[in-house]
Amino acid sequence: MKILGIKLTHDGALALIENGKLVFSIEMEKIDNYPRYSSFCIDMPKIEEILKTYGYQFDEMDSVVVDGWDTWDPALILSGHVDKAKYLSIRSYGTEKFKFYELAGYGRMVTPEENILERQKFKTVGAELAYVSYQHVSSHIFGAYCTSPFAKNKEDSFILVWDGGMPPQLFYFVYPEKRVRNLGYLFPLVGYLYINFAQAFAPFNTLRKDLSIAGKMMAYIAIGKFERGLLDKLRNIYTGLLDEVKEIDMDIDLMAILTETFIKEAKQLSRVENISQDDMLTTFHFFVQELLLETLKDKLKDFSDLTPNLCFAGGSALNIKWNSNIRNSGLFNDIWVPPFPNDSGSAIGTACCEMIEKDDIISLDWTVYCGPALVDKPFENQDYAVSDCNLEELAYILHKYNEPVVYLNGFAESGPRSLGNRSILAAPVSGAMKSKINVMKGRENYRPVAPICIEAAAPSIFYPGSADPYMLFEHKVKDSWVDKIPAIIHLDGTARLQTVNAAQNPEIYQLLSYYEKLSGVPLLCNTSANLNGSGFFADVKSVMDWGKAVFIWNEGKLYTHKKHEHYKSRSEALALDPNALGHL
Predict the structure, then answer these.
(1) Percent of the chain with pLDDT over 90
(2) Angle at which helices 346-354 and 136-145 pack, to 10 degrees?
(3) Which is more confidently placed, 525 or 85?
(4) d(CA 311, CA 337)
(5) Closest to 439 measured CA to CA, from 455, 451, 426
(6) Number of helical H runs and strand E runs in the chain
């Protein structure tokens, strides 16, 4: 069965599953350098074009599945006043549109009795298209579970979902019964708490509200100090709010009020007691971290007979410190966070719902490198010279020139992390490299640069140094390596490690191996190759137009900027050291 999954709202995406295998997952932000978090913004001819590159046609799809959302008004639709109802759309051909007036809900607060796999059928208005829809929370549940090792091993698992518009909700998938148990929420604060709290304090209070603030906040907390006394005061604010509403039935509206009131009272506390805003942000992060773990532990007491596996999804699962805290807690045998836990994975997840219901397949056959291929079109740029360059030579260039290289190879990664195919790579041996990359990308100076490391070498450099192929957990750099790799160390001594082996990404593994032979260091700096505020570079030309890269490598070709002081053709580079490649 061919299932086309669509995410229409922010983090718009298109995914195709056939007979339990993920064919592709393409987020809008990765098409033509569109802005990050773009809603679905391509038309039917473009959808047809994408499908054609994989050998498919739209009319071959057995099922079109649209991820759920809310704020719909079915009464207006039923009364015929569709012109006044909210809708999302995809342009068909010419001016005609597929208008989606109805979708399954968001799932902001799931009741114990709800069937999380309820399949709802609809038709578009205008150009007619039959489609089905599942709740948004369901796309997170099954985007996580179906890609997990637990599904592959036919094991049950808890599934924690904490997305922007909901509190952290716990579920449990019973594999033999193909059934989800709804276990309730952990605490009544919605996921947007993290962003909204950050924006109540400097330096985030001057920024436009944007989902990227969560990642910036996670990095910034290394600047402030954790204060236990302040954490206790935040706890008192929280428990006081709960006491005020203990006689009121909890719903999502009340949770939104509690969330904003908590932020307001924390800001007032900071003002009255003259608390450093940096310390407030840092301590708040750990307050939420402790609250998450404590309430999760309390909830599990009622389900001690269930298999202690955990999948974690929703935008909050991008927080590597929370992920690591849960993993280190001992509450679970294992924890799985997919590389696309936020809405970038919702097209995959909603298609997985249909895969379970219609194909009776639970474990998805997938790879993270399922995004778009580089756009292959002729281009000219007189500022760059091109030469052949294999991976051994590229390792030499990284080692010799101490310049970042925009590395573009194969299919893009799905999800927000650059995992080697759309990366800016650099030598990690100079502390100045972190600043150089941040300036190059127009990022704040406190932002970290991640390491990409040979998996077998990671335990000797990091703690715990365990396999982490999707850059979703925190690792401490061991003392013996601190002076050797300063570019990848965050202000608090940690790193957002990505490990790689020969099977996961053969080209990156080979490049790291060549670099290790030259430098004795089995890792490189790795950050996303993208315009600031946009998705990954779609082609070599867009990198050249950006103009900030000295070196661009694309599948055996090296493009070198002519005006840079390090410009050399391949023959000139070797002339500097004729035996260079012989030493590799």
Answers:
(1) 88
(2) 80
(3) 525
(4) 6
(5) 426
(6) 17, 25
Residue 460, SS3? helix
- The Cα 367–Cα 372 span in angstroms is 13
Tell me if 163 sits within 8 A of 345, measured CB to CB. no
On whether the pTM is more than 0.85, the answer is yes
Which stretches of 422-505 are DSSP H helices?
432-441, 458-461
| Averaged confidence pLDDT in the chain | 93
**Which pairing describes strands 88-91 and 157-161: parallel, antiparallel, or unpaired?**
unpaired
List, in order, residues 6 or more apart from 80 with CB less than 8 Å away.
none
Question: Where does residue 120 rank: exposed (0-12), middle (13-18), buried (19+ CB within 10 A)?
Answer: middle
As a whole number of angstroms, the distance between CA 3 and CA 458 comes to: 38
Q: How far apart are the first and last CA of the chain?
A: 49
Q: What is the pLDDT, as a whole number, of residue 216?
A: 95
Angle between helices 213-220 and 277-300 (to 10 degrees): 100
- The three-class DSSP label of residue 191 is coil
Q: How far apart are CA 316 and CA 187, in angstroms?
A: 14
Q: Pairing state of beta strands 2-7 and 63-67? A: parallel
What is the enclosing helix (H) or strand (E) of 399?
helix 391-401
- Alpha carbons 216 and 199: distance in angstroms, whole number: 11
pLDDT, residue 82, reads 60
Tokens of 486: 């300063």
The residue to which tokens 């041996």 are assigned: 429
Pairing of strands 551-554, 405-408: parallel
- Model confidence pLDDT, tens digit, residues 31-85: 988 999 999 999 999 999 999 999 999 999 999 999 999 866 656 556 666 666 6
Report DSSP letters for 220-245, one per residue.
Answer: HTTTS---HHHHHHHHHHHHHHHHHT
Q: Which of 339, 338, 322 is nearest to 168 (CA)?
A: 322
**pLDDT digits 0-9 by tens, 425-477:** 999 999 999 999 999 999 999 999 999 999 999 999 999 999 999 999 999 99
> At 8, is the pLDDT very low, low, confident or very high (cuts 50, 70, 90)?
very high
Token pair for 97: 């549109």
**Cα–Cα distance between 461 and 484 in angstroms, integer?**
10
**Bridge partners, 24 (sequence order):** 16
Average pLDDT over residues 396-409: 96
Token pair in block for residue 341: 């836990």
d(CA 142, CA 349): 5
